[in-house]
Amino acid sequence: MHANAFKDPVFQALWALGEKATKGKTKNHCAGCHSPIGTVTDSITFDPNKGEHGEFQAPGVAAKGVSCDVCHTISATNILKTKTLEHGNSSFEMHPGPIKRATLKNSNSPFHATEYSELHNSSKFCANCHNIFHPDNDFPIERTYDEWKYSIYAQNDIQCMDCHMVPVEMAIKVADTLTRPHKIKDIDLSGVAAIGGPVRSLIHDHGFVGGNAVISKALGGNESINYTESIKRLQNVASLELEVSARGRGLHNVMVKVNNDRAGHNLPTSLTEVRQVWLEVVAIDDQGRELLRSGTLDEKTNDLPKNTTIFNVTAVDKNGKHTEFPWEITRFTTTNTIPPRGYKKVNYAFTLFSDSHNVSIKATLHYRSFSQHLADFLLGKGKVKVPDIEMVTLEKQYPVKNQQVIDNHSTDNSH
User: Fold this and answer.
1) pLDDT tier at 227 (50, 70, 90 boundaries)?
2) Is residue 166 a part of any domain in this protein?
3) Does the pLDDT of residue 414 top 80, yes or no?
4) In the chain, N or C: fewer CB atoms in 10 Å?
5) pLDDT at 214
6) How many CB atoms lie within 10 A of CB 150?
7) 4 domain residue, yes or no
8) Which residues of 237-260 are buried (b: 16+ CB within 10 A; e: fewer)?
């Protein structure tokens, strides 16, 4: 996704709207992470008349977003020079030139000089762009790094790249065992870093795949590989538990527990005011009567019904009005994301009929990068149908006796 950081159409649309709304304040603030080369060369231009809302353009390598040279010319962080004294808002120092930096101590390239960098083996490297503060009011809009920093993963020295620069199968092992990849011997990640190079025991994947599957698919081409990888990651990160309890006269409570098993940050993370991780819960008795339905997408609008349980945050502007625009955010009024190795419990209710003999309860955890109405606003009505990714599903048949469920607990064992 780093290669798409500049051309991502959703980002471009939001960026253009912000540029107009703030009279030019978002250009370098956003480009610092989405096109560092364009920022330091001052080569990014804005055309307010292109596209739905305007379009930013950059020449050559500057349009390639976070390219190879961006990361491998970074030499330090400038945390002590930031307004908040925190990592974030592109708080890195670049030294363009013949020296390329990375984690190999004995590398030798015929094309450029090399230098070992301890920073490239640390989550502090990623923190420079995966913590974002509002440039005027300093409110923390994105806290992916901090979510990791205070987690059990950080306590066990598991770094961002230990999950995001290895295949899904290794990321699962890392999360389950809290062991860094180079110490896990039953998955072979050996290979060569470049043509003609020596065989090394651990070669890092540079796809940097996360959950943003929408853009991967929308861009097409080779990005379909990243789309498939995104799905695999999303479908191996969480688990569900169900518990049903009778309240009398056929009334029952359904508790759904959502566990963040394998994400080293909150679920979801990043722009959590637009991310959508939600529960769909449906209960149907043996005669096909629907007793409960919550969180089912509208077939016509592809949007969620009101009162759906969504794991995200609610952001407001200076007037306390709900907003999905980062430049308007002054605070979050609700925070309902799930921390690493944490969980959330959600309660529902249904009433059995007197002649119900069995009830089927199905809970599904879904993911979308953003809502359909936001996609329509940013990209144009009907330009893209935001895909719904089913992360995990748990379905259980419960026998009923005298209007009361028996055998009332179920756990997802798919992981």
Assistant:
1) confident
2) no
3) no
4) C
5) 65
6) 12
7) no
8) bbbbbbebebeeebebebebbbbb
Q: What is the pLDDT of residues 99-149, one digit of tens each?
A: 999 999 888 898 999 999 999 999 999 999 999 999 999 999 999 999 999
Domain count across the chain:
1
Instruction: Quote the crossing angle between the two packed helices 9-21 and 372-379, to the nearest 10°.
Output: 70
Q: Any long-range contacts for 286-290 (C-beta under 8 Å, 24+ apart)? A: 286/356, 286/357, 286/358, 286/359, 286/400, 287/353, 287/355, 287/356, 289/353, 289/356
**Strand 404-405 to 389-401 pairing:** antiparallel
Dist. CA 301–CA 295, nearest whole Å: 14
Least confident among 8-22, 143-157, 204-218, 379-393:
204-218
**Per-residue pLDDT tens digits for 374-385:** 999 999 999 999
Q: Using the 8-state DSSP alphabet, how is residue 295 labeled?
A: S
Residue 397's domain comprises 237-411
Residue reference for tokens 């992360």:
391
- Among 355, 384, 348, smallest CA distance to 251 is for 348
Determine, yes or no, domain membership for 180. Answer: no
Render 169-232 in DSSP notation, one character per residue.
HHHHHHHHHT--GGG--SS-B-EESSTTPPEESB--------S-HHHHHHH-TTHHHHHHHHHH
- Find the range with the poorest average confidence among 78-92, 94-108, 153-167, 356-370: 78-92
- Under DSSP, the state recorded for 414 is -
Closest CA to 193 of 185, 184, 202: 202
Q: How many CB atoms lie within 10 A of CB 234?
A: 24
- Residue 296 belongs to a domain: yes
